[in-house]
Amino acid sequence: MKIRIKGSSIRLRLTKVEVNQLIEQGKVSDECRIIDRILIYKIRTEKNHTTNATFIDNTIEVIVDQALVLNWKKDED
Fold this sequence. Notes:
The chain is an alpha+beta fold. It contains two helices and six strands. It has helices at 16-25, 66-76; strands at 2-6, 9-13, 27-34, 37-46, 52-56, 59-65.
């Protein structure tokens, strides 16, 4: 998974393998070392959930509705 930060927006890019992992396991995460700190970024799914993000304790977490992620898979095929 790649993270891109530009201005006040954050973009997570997942590979096809990671999209499959998100569908099967409900979560994907990665981390980046910045000097002496670690930035953790993760995405997970929940049923009937509005997409939102949090930043707590050096961790960016994005929660996405399961149905939306299933559509990502359909778009790949």
